[in-house]
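Slide 14.
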Amino acid sequence: MASSRTRRTRRTFGLRALGGGAAACAMAVAGAGAAGADPALREVMFVGNNWEGTADVIESRGDLARIGRLNVIPDKDERLKEIYANPVKLVYYLGVRETAGEGHDQYVDDMYSTPDGSAVVASRPSFADVVSIDVTTGKINWRFPVSGFRADHMAVSPDGARVAVSASTSNTVHVLDIATGAQAGSFKTGDKPHENVFTGGGKYLWNMSIGEVNNQFDAPWMDFGKGDRRITVVDTATFKQVKVIDMRQRLDAFGQRGLSDSVRPVAFTPDESTLYFQVSFFNGFLEYDVGTDKITRMKTLPKNPKTSDDRTTWVNDSRHHGLSMSPKGDKLCIAGTMDDYATVVDRASLKEAPLVPAVKPYWATVSGDGKSCVISESGADQVTAIDFATGKKVASVAVGDHPQRVRLGHVPARWTTPAQVP
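Slide 15: predicted structure.
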């Protein structure tokens, strides 16, 4: 049950005030290397190869051709010595490997480049930290150990100055200066903080906690065992909570008591009036009106008949995990993770385009020119672009082992792979 303080907070703050075009701001930051911008920078996409500990650098549009690669774990030996010397850290390190890592170490979850393109900042789940890596030398500029024992999803502020990271075992989000790694602030969340999104031009930060996704309480009647799942919204000047959104209440009011309230990837419309979100175990997504604080529509997408009905076999409680929106806000792109496809959905009609086969697609983002949805196929070790207009596959490129997050960013115009990267 929510505390009286939380209930007062929910009544006091309206959601409409929490918008302000951050989606557009984020696109502006990401696209700063496009035509007419700084000629010293080259717009690229970074692909985090989670099980390998590398980040492939690829073209941000067109054929997605591979440009080079970064080693995200140049300090691996040092980190492992620390972990094996600390029994508690070792237990968690091995736990991450056997649960979220599906038997593999998780070396790079998320990454963003600095505004000047000189460094990439990456979260490393197995090492429970965030590091800044110089893209020219491949050396670490700074390292920030998160609280607890695992680092997860990140978000960069619209001005590129700050990066937020979820510390999933301590139910904390840290907000860091992207240039120095100094902590600007932090705040508490629900269980297992996951996705982070800046809104209102960077004034607010939304965190979605997904609860306990690694236990076996996967049957609907055992949902109580999944923990405290909620959206926490904070003011980024004070890091004080301004809103808590319990989707359980909204789902029940919408007539969907059987759906999980574990909010996974999300996408705001450009004006931030509407939020689309995925939830655990569901092959589809929901639409949430920010102003009225209500779920307004739901889209169920096709099931793959080859996908097991045993929920305990689905990776980290996912069914579909990956959601992005076209810059105009008229199309959605869905990664059907456990169903092995991706598809473009018309936002007005919610009608899906023909399904594009993909092997365990884990993320969906937008190409630099805004024309394509870009998905990571974690089961095929490749990244694929799907045209928003036609819904058809237009390009694929091979990358490293188990690609997950894909982010737009920048490197110096004449950048090449640092010498020490294999």
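Speaker note: The CA atoms of residues 303 and 309 lie 10 Å apart.
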